[in-house]
Amino acid sequence: MKKLLVATTVAMALSATAHAADSTAQLKVQGVLTNDACTPSLSGGVTIDFGTYYVDSLSSTDTNQLGHKDTTLSITCSSPTKVSWTIEDNVGGAADIDILNSGFSGSNVYSGGSSAVNHFGVGKTAGGVNIGAYAVSINKNASTADGTAQRVIASINTNTDAVTGWTKFFDVSSYDYTETDYQYSLSLVTPTQPIAFTNAVFPLRIALAVENTSTLAITDDTPIAGQATITLHYL
């Protein structure tokens, strides 16, 4: 489907001087029309199923680490396009717990915190307790653009200037967690700026943990139900 992208900038200059006041204002409108279109998709579908866990098999005192699942985010464009992506939690209420993933190299723990931007919620118990949290990480060593390994770069959502807005993704481990305040793209080693691609691949890892059963106090079947939205941004 063709996309119509129109970016409008309004610039006004008003004079408030006491003498020779200028009673005019300038309005500038600019935009881009493009036929380029990109589509995101996840390998294996959009549902990451961690299966069923019996409460009596979980710890009553410690955070329960339920492991990780791997998937791949692919972005396919009709022609070479500079595009980034963001991920946003649709559920909220992530539990204040650490998330451990033994499949990572380097740092294995996602820091807890009720406001941690790298935690995503999975719902509440019937008693209103946050069940747990999951984190989504990118394998930056295996991300590719048109079949060639490229550097994963990140930018705070409010600063995507082509020169100053982008930085190399974190160096903690092969996988590093995504944050809702950032958007992600691919670049050459230098300069650190987004490159145009027709097809990009970002291997993702989803790690899940739930609260101890004493905190959860579950008496009925309780679904783990997380949901997040991945959005593409044309640059």
Strand content: 35-45%
Report, as a whole number of angstroms, the end-to-end distance: 18 Å
The sequence of SSEs as H and E is EEEEEEEEEEEEEEHE
Number of self-contained structural domains: 1
Note the overall shape. Answer: elongated
Helix content: under 10%
Q: Helix/strand-derived class?
A: mainly beta
Low-confidence segments, given as residue ranges, are 1-20, 102-115
Q: Main sheet, how many strands, which sense, barrel?
A: 8 strands, antiparallel
Q: Which whole number gives the mean pLDDT?
A: 79
Query: Using only CA atoms, what is the Rg?
Result: 22 Å
Q: Write down how many β-strands occur, each being a DSSP E stretch of 2 or more residues.
A: 15
Number of helices: 1
What does this structure look like?
The protein has one domain (38-234). A hairpin with a 2-residue loop joins strand 8 (144-145) and strand 9. It has 235 residues and is mainly β. The chain is elongated and about 60 Å long. 2% of the residues lie in helices and 37% in strands.
Quick summary:
The protein is mostly beta strands and 235 residues long. The chain has one helix and 15 strands, in the order E-E-E-E-E-E-E-E-E-E-E-E-E-E-H-E. It has one helix at residues 213-216; strands at residues 38-42, 64-81, 83-89, 99-100, 109-110, 120-121, 132-139, 144-145, 148-149, 151-156, 167-168, 175-177, 182-187, 197-210, 228-234.
